[in-house]
Amino acid sequence: MLPGAQSGSSVDPPVRPGGTAEIALIGYQDQGNLGMGYLSAVLQQRGHTVQMIDVRDGPEKIAERLVSRQPLVVGFSLIFQAFLPQFRRVASRLRDAGITSHFTIGGHFPSLCHDEALKHFPELDSVVRFEGEHTLVDLVDRLLSNRDWRETPGLAFLKDGQVAESEPRPLVQDLDSLPYPYRPFEPEQIGGFPTLPLLASRGCARRCSFCSIHTFYRNAPGKVVRVRKPVKVVEEMLYLLQHLGVRVILFQDDDFPLWGLAGRRWADELVERMYDAGLVDRMIWKISCRAEYVESELFRKLRDAGLFLVYMGLESGTEQGLRVLNKQMSVEENLAAVRTLKELELNVSYGFMLFDPSSTFESVRENLAFLKNITGDGRAAATFSRMLPYGGTPIRDALRTEGRLRGDLTRPDYDFLDLRLNEFYRLLTPTVRPWIHHQGLTYQLEYAWDEFTTVTRLARGLQGAEEYGKALQSLTKESNERLFQHVEECLDGFEQGDRSKLAGGPARAYCEAGGKQLLALRNSFIARNVELLVDVVSEDCKSGPVLMPQIH
Amino acid sequence: MAAERELPDFLRFVPRPIGDWIDMQFVLQEVEQELRSEVLAVGLETMANAHRAIAEGAAKVASILRGVEQKRG
Hints:
The complex is a heterodimer. Chain A has helices spanning 3-7, 34-45, 59-67, 84-96, 108-112, 114-120, 133-144, 213-218, 230-244, 260-276, 296-304, 319-324, 331-343, 361-375, 394-401, 420-432, 441-458, 465-495, 507-528, 530-537, and strands at 22-27, 49-54, 73-77, 102-106, 126-128, 155-159, 162-165, 188-190, 193-198, 201-202, 226-227, 248-251, 284-288, 307-315, 347-355, 385-386, 405-407, 412-414. Chain A is of the alpha/beta class. Chain A has a 7-stranded mixed beta sheet, sandwiched between helices. In chain A, strands 8-9-12-13-14-15-16 form a 7-stranded mixed beta sheet. In chain A, helix 3 (59-67) packs across helix 4 and helix 18 (465-495) runs antiparallel to helix 19 (507-528). The radius of gyration of chain B is 27 Å and the shape is elongated. Chain B has one helix at 25-72. By secondary structure, chain B is mostly helical. The interface between A and B is large, with 52 and 29 residues.
């Protein structure tokens, strides 16, 4: 590591007139990265210039972009620890190119496992722990004024080869005090409609054993769950509509704040403000929440105000699995939530872990039965994953104590109690890829459902919508059945010593054909409605709303 | 049946996750697999270059030795 990088103050920092600096933030830009957006916004509020860079641009391109600029700070925004090697390659290339900036990193994994992050990422000068907005601004101020940056609250770093931490920094208590996230890119589109993420709250009051969200917030001082004022959320929606033409909002809250009486009152006010602002019928939105919040009257009201998609972490179809994952939910509560959402004709998206540390061959079958129950009608594409023991989660600690933790830092893993299940999972995974993969049939179907709902909610009077909806449901139903049948045959075969099904087979051909069929159906439906969709998408978004947004 | 190319760009079918990233373990595995493949490819290219260099060197040595033998002859 270069000497200037280590000290952060032994070389002259690139200070610009007015005592401001240039900062580079590097991370993933899928769906718009709200974390980087908020960091950029607070830095810009202080007069600093920020470059947001997609890590997928690669080491060479990023080095080329930064070498002549020598930013004061390069911040890495790490979502998953699996990406650590990719980020490290970029950092290493930047150092080789002679970039002496202060390198820091933030996100769940570095915050909770700062010792491991510093050990495996020697190019780093510091780790910004937990919410980074105020810490990063403070760090930049100290570097600019040649004060000791190690005294910045909320940091971790190496001192004489040992991990050291500055005093902890409290969480941001008033989320409405933050500026809107910086969004300098073209929004992604669903069915032609610009789509962006938004936050109405931060934090989660629950303590699921596999999740790092609660440990991330509980390890920093201050109130864990913080909710924005409904009027401020609606002002930001209106701002996005008027300035960027955004019509689809993805609320990326850790847990959309609908819990209890307070949650209901908050939701009532949010809906009321949306009507006041003229957003209803012009914008639709997705939320992520716990299944226990789903109740017919409340969700009908939310649907009528624009809710179109609900993501829930259902996670297991067995009571034992839900206990091990500490979901504090029952199988029946999960089923009831799905039923209610379907009755309201809302799209359902869900997280489900077919395999978890308590899994047995029997529980995998029980989980399949649960999945059949919720997706058997073809209203949602069947998907599943395996629980992974992420850094900073209680279940990783428990697995370590039990001597079952396996893998390495970037690819954490564990042994099942029945070791035969390790082998079954290893063999099964590649055979379900034709469905469960970023280009797999399940993801294509899931996206097709969200696109279908988006266009039918935002553009009234589309021709052939009913037929396409029915065809989509039929195709999804068949795809789900084939996936379940495949997993069941693999299970049966494996338990009887026959592994032929696990060698792959016709699944890929089936899914490829299904993908082609879906594309043909979808394109035919869209083609029938191109003129109407073009008209609605290009509608003037600047007129209409009553409220004027607070411009940040 | 409408072909993809007949639709305006913004109405083409480009599936992407809009639910929750936390469920993307299979995708992550894929990303990592791609990185591993990339590392393996670089390793094999290096090996190929090394073998190519050895082969070229050996051919030159052979040619020189043959030349020396011819002169002696």
